[in-house]
Write a structure and sequence with these properties.
This protein is of the alpha/beta class. It has nine helices and 14 strands. The strands form four sheets. The chain has a five-stranded mixed beta sheet, with helices on both faces. It has a five-stranded mixed beta sheet with strand order 10-9-8-13-14, sandwiched between helices. A two-stranded antiparallel ribbon has the order 5-6. The mean pLDDT is 95.
Length: 294
Amino acid sequence: MSHLLAFDIGGTQIKYGIVSDTGEVLYAEVQNTCAADGGPALLSRLLALAQPLIAQYQPIGIAISSLGLIEPLRGTVLGAAEAVPDYPGIALIPTFENAFGLPTTAENDVNCVALAEGWTGAAQGVQDYLAIAIGTGIGGGIVLGGRLHRGHRAAAGEWGYMKIGGQIWESQASMSGLVRSAEATTGGAGLNGKVIFARLDAGDALMQKVVAEWLDLLATGIANLIYAFNPEKIVLGGGIAGRGELFLSAIRNAVDQQLLPDFKTMTKLALATAGNHAGMLGAVRNWLNTHGGA
């Protein structure tokens, strides 16, 4: 069994640790990103975090998952990383390879989550699937023929920006969109997903209407993706997945209502199961795919 050093770099936290080539997380830590310090400072922190783990575990390589659009050959941050000032333009791969002499890969964080779901999660054994992350926005990863589809400029899967009903999809159908809608409808403030669904479950008629409209908007976008990609499976992740079967049953029904009869049984919807270390796991899966591993 071989080990890899894995990083999952987010706008708020850095998750990092040692992962085996069989998908076992052997060691994991979390640090604050300290995003306000900027990209160069973040890079210095990552190198400092890597050093003792490389000395202790002797990994065969370094696998990076990161926020932003990531060009895969040099791991250059192309953009969409506003949370960390001066991060775009940094080339992650040569920085780590020059520092440690270990083969390094870098990939977008949601793409890594998609790879993790195909490796140890809900899409194991599936060749054509989408992973949709429903959070503050809506992003995703695309796997076709068992391979990650990045697009021309590593920007594939940014379907949160699709226009539905003349509005940006994620502005309406993300969790933050649901909260905005609930606050506008009820005149309340300080709502969050837990409060909204607690009221829904308690039979609040107004919240039932808000959530039904939100599910319809979410389902419209998912149906469009089914028509566009014809995936065998769509894996849904984000905090909403914590509702389990309640959410899965509701979104399945809502999507069915959007699809023509011939398409209703083509694509299975499932909840993400790769867990809290999905970014690290997907980064390692990407490394193994790149370097001919398991």
